[in-house]
Amino acid sequence: MTIRTLIQEMRSRPHRVVHDAASIPTVSDSFSWEELPEELLREILIRVETADGGDWPSRKNVVACAGVCRSWRILTKEIVSVPEFSSKLTFPTSLKQPGPRDSLVQCFILRNRNTQSYHLYLGLTNSLTDDGKFLLAASKLKRATCTDYIISLRSDDMSKRSNVYLGRVRSNFLGTKFTVFDGNLTAQTGAAKMQKSRSSNLIKVSPRVPQGSYPIAHISYELNGLGSRGPRRMRCIMDTIPMSIVESRGRVASTSISSLSIRPSPFLRSHSKPVRSNSASCSDSGNNLRDPPLVLSNKTPRWHEQLQCWCLNFHGRVTVASVKNFQLVAVRDCETGQPSERIILQFGKVGKDMFTMDYGYPISAFQAFAICLSSFETRIACE
């Protein structure tokens, strides 16, 4: 059903929503879409959102409505729920918002060994063979002392100066510790927002533009007591998510992507800062923090006597045994290391260069993708 059809249908209905239906131009008249009365526009957008459900490619209709003009964009933002409650990834900002509380968003990663690139797709069906909806791309840059993974909204643009740059993952020399950085376009390029004075030729720098990218997660790998024969131990410290979020089922703020300017740009404006905590045991930074950050650890696999291997229950989402496979759960107590049972992120191999990635609350698709990228790196000290 098109928007023009909806307008015609609503014009024929009793005027309980539109107070002055006669003032609405006919579909044959020339008029601006942004001039539609707010009450009529809201009902149209609600019906489009309801009809589209949660699957792609039908979600493109919601995105198209949001791209018409500013008034449509504002109303669409109000109507479309965040992934935490709707389980829908609709706009680019959804990639940096917490996943659903009661389920996992099913995605998969395709690796290209020749170009050292990784593409993240949203699974459109429960099958592992669908084409998926492209979400994010990453490129591996090998340096003398570390490895960088650049994460972007586009597979053909990996420049840090680009407006589609989201962040990066950097490893240490041994490949045992990783830091995830939330990218900030202004700080990376050194090109602060400039405004030209009308009265002179002087260039003024806007002081409101945030400066510098900041770490949002720290990932570490280490051997267990069995050495290379056993599964690796993995630990993630989520600097921007407090531990109390998981315990109290509170709401998590989305990570900052304020510096991006992808059209429509208002969808990409959100802010978040690292969590402060008094506990140094859960953080490598040792800062004076007011609330301990969320700590994730990999779920311990069990030894299968018949198969003679370590096993985890991925509920059919992983089909190939690999040292890269893992499931992350929250550590409830940093001192005892007692993990919870709820899986927040699981990653596993299903083909030579294909891996599944399923994530949920309280981490985002960007954070989950960054953590999974660290698993691709070869660890000199662990392997």
TrEMBL record:
It comes from the Eukaryota. Residues 33-77 form the F-box domain. Gene3D superfamilies: 1.20.1280.50, Tubby Protein, Chain A. Residues 275-287 have a biased composition (Polar residues). PROSITE patterns: TUB_1 (PS01200). Residues 95-378 form the Tubby C-terminal domain. InterPro entries: F-box-like_dom_sf, F-box_dom, Tubby-like_C, Tubby_C, Tubby_C_CS. Residues 268-287 are annotated as: Disordered. Belongs to the TUB family. This is Tubby-like F-box protein 9.
